[in-house]
């Protein structure tokens, strides 16, 4: 029984194993109708609860399909419809869920909620995004890069824009996978300094700058995310400060000529990315979205010790 809360807590070897398993599981069911189970449905009979404190399209649907293809079933729950929404404790909710289901994925406003759930559950707990991190997303992104660009440790990734939850998970991943990560963020929206120093101390090759041009020069991968994440205050101010960080054709032209573009979605064309980049030939965003499904199957299997 293992939790999947942050990449920092998982050995690099296990993370590489999850990616390899995701790629193998994707190949093994190639051509099968989406609603059929995998040739090897390793989680037959397992029940997964998916709890959402915030909106979701990809995480919700890909986890739901993931457990079905693995032979199990899911229930999708909105926290506001549960007693959680009326103040029942996370601890009691975790103890009760542990009596009914085999694993829980939670998308929470506060990172501490996921840790509290894990402390009191005796089933695996998976982080489906918090204010601090989004580890399942980064695993899908790295799977996509491994498929399109090969060995991850040889790559230079440039993150441009808000130093948010998704950026934090890339920072965690840099220490585990050995790629170079160059982040360009305005000082006001710089990534978490403690997490960045911890990653650098753990051996990550991370460079911080406020210049998008500097970050993307020669990069193999250019990544951005929304300038206003769920729960962020003061959207007008954010959009103003972050406007110079838009990924557009001019910026992409400074990256390596074979560079690819990633975005976890949902995207806001004309804000963090221009339409010509996200809808252009360098963009891998829909392969990236598809890989959420495959990688989550491997994460679920890992949590069950498979
Ligand atoms: N990328 C991602 O997590 O998308 P959703 O918010 O739609 O789940
Ligand atoms: N940073 C975004 C990611 C959405 C998938 C948010 O937290 O809203």
Q: Main attributes?
A:
single chain; 306 residues; alpha/beta; Rossmann fold; five-stranded parallel beta sheet; four-stranded parallel beta sheet; 12 helices; 14% strand; binds phosphoric acid mono(formamide)ester; binds norvaline
Task: Tell me about this structure.
With 306 residues, the protein is an alpha/beta fold. It folds into two domains: 7-134 and 292-303, Rossmann fold; 136-288, Rossmann fold. 42% of the residues lie in helices and 14% in strands. The chain is built from twelve helices and nine strands. The strands form two sheets. It has a five-stranded parallel β-sheet with strand order 7-6-5-8-9. Strand 3, helix 4 (111-120) and strand 4 form a beta-alpha-beta unit. Helix 1 (12-28) packs across helix 5, helix 2 crosses helix 12 (285-303) and helix 3 (90-100) crosses helix 4. The N and C termini lie close together (10 Å). The relative contact order is 0.16. The mean pLDDT is 98. It binds phosphoric acid mono(formamide)ester (CP) and norvaline. Norvaline is lined by residues 129, 164-166, 225-226, 229-230, 264.
The CATH superfamily of the largest domain bears the name Aspartate/ornithine carbamoyltransferase
Largest sheet: 5 strands, parallel
Cα radius of gyration in angstroms: 19 Å
The counted number of beta strands is 9
Order of helices and strands: HEHEHEHEHEHEHEHEHHEHH
Class of secondary structure makeup: alpha/beta
Ranges where pLDDT stays below 50 over 5 or more residues in a row are none
Overall 3D form: globular
Query: Can you name the CATH architecture of the largest domain?
Result: 3-Layer(aba) Sandwich
Strand content: 5-15%
Strand order of the largest sheet: 7-6-5-8-9
CATH class of the largest domain: Alpha Beta
| Total of domains | 2
**What value does the average pLDDT take?**
98
The separation of the N and C termini measures 10 Å
User: CATH topology of the largest domain, anyone?
Assistant: Rossmann fold
Helix proportion range: 40-55%
Bound molecules: phosphoric acid mono(formamide)ester, norvaline
Oligomer: single chain
Give the helix tally.
Answer: 12
